[in-house]
């Protein structure tokens, strides 16, 4: 059995009186793809943002490759780690958002080089070779010197994926990466993600693309009301869900 790379235990998060996460437990196996589906407001995106501490949790623990994220445990008490330590942990977690967040004043290549060179202090020449290979992987080798404003939304999102991969993360998070795209541009981004999945990259994907989840996921998780209602391989969860709430949701989106 493949060991879990990401382990989430007893996660709670509220925004004021609104309870968004309500005791989430989740394991993501090393080298596998987990797709999280569910209605809007079910806590999917918040869960993803807690993994790299873009949102602090109220209760619970998150482990990446056995290391507690965001905190240090002493005598069963948690104390926040320093910003420097947290920045180091975040280098192991790549994230692609709904919006592309590219630096508009930088070329495609410069966007990809910025973090590995500036944060990891890796040699620029070495990173440039890797960046060019990543652009080839996402089908944009000819766009290395273009600026984001000259790219379509789908192209910008593929650059964002390449930029995240340039940090050599252990885990990649995707927060509805195609939701801001025109329908005809969605396929190219999903194709890149399918290739990454085939390559053994550990991925957690919040998505409304049920077809992608069916084809690319090893595990599909259905969330509602801040909890994991059901988790199973795609053929089982999408084809024969156990929970009534899962069946009701899928009946509306399939």
Structure description:
This protein is an alpha/beta fold. It is 37% helix and 28% strand. It is built from 9 helices and 12 strands. The protein has helices at 44-51, 83-90, 108-118, 124-137, 153-165, 183-198, 210-216, 234-239, 244-253, and strands spanning 4-15, 18-29, 33-37, 59-64, 67-68, 71-74, 77-80, 93-96, 171-175, 203-206, 219-224, 227-232. A hairpin with a 2-residue loop joins strand 1 (4-15) and strand 2 (18-29).
Shape: globular
Number of strands: 12
Distance between the termini: 32 Å
Task: Determine the number of helices (DSSP H or I, runs of at least 4 residues).
Answer: 9
Structure classification: alpha/beta
* Biggest β-sheet strands, sense, barrel: 6 strands, mixed
Q: Strands of the largest sheet, in order across it?
A: 8-9-10-3-11-12
Tell me the helix content: 25-40%
The helix/strand series, from N terminus to C terminus, equals EEEHEEEEHEHHHEHEHEEHH
Beta strand %: 25-35%
The unreliable regions are none
Cα-based radius of gyration, to the nearest Å: 18 Å
Mean pLDDT: 95
Notable features of this structure?
single chain; 254 residues; alpha/beta; six-stranded mixed β-sheet; four-stranded antiparallel β-sheet; 9 helices; 12 strands; 37% helix
Condensed summary:
This protein has 254 residues and is of the alpha/beta class. The chain is 37% helix and 28% strand.
């Amino acid at each position: 059995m493949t060991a879990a790379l990401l382990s989430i235990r007893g996660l709670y998060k509220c925004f004021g009186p609104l309870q968004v996460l309500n005791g989430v437990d989740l394991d993501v196996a090393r080298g596998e793809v987990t797709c999280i589906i569910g209605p809007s407001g079910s806590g999917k995106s918040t869960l993803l943002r807690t993994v790299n501490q873009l949102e602090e949790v109220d209760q619970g623990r998150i482990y990446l490759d056995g290391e507690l994220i965001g905190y240090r445990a002493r005598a069963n008490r948690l104390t926040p780690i320093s910003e420097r330590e947290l920045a180091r942990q975040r280098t192991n977690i790549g994230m692609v958002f709904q919006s592309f967040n590219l630096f508009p004043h930088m070329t495609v290549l410069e966007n990809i080089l910025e973090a590995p060179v500036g944060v990891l202090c890796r040699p620029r020449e070495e990173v440039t070779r890797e960046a060019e290979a990543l652009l080839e992987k996402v089908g944009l080798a000819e766009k290395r010197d273009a600026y984001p404003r000259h790219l379509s939304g789908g192209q910008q999102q593929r650059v964002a994926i390449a930029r995240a991969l340039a940090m050599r993360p252990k885990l990649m998070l995707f927060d509805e990466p195609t939701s801001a795209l025109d329908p005809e541009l969605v396929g190219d981004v999903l194709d890149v993600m399918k290739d990454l999945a085939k390559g053994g990259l550990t991925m957690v994907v919040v998505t409304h693309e049920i077809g992608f989840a069916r084809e690319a996921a090893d595990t599909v998780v259905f969330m509602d009301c801040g909890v994991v209602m059901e988790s199973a391989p795609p053929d089982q969860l999408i084809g024969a869900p156990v929970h009534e709430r899962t069946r009701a949701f899928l009946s509306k989106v399939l």
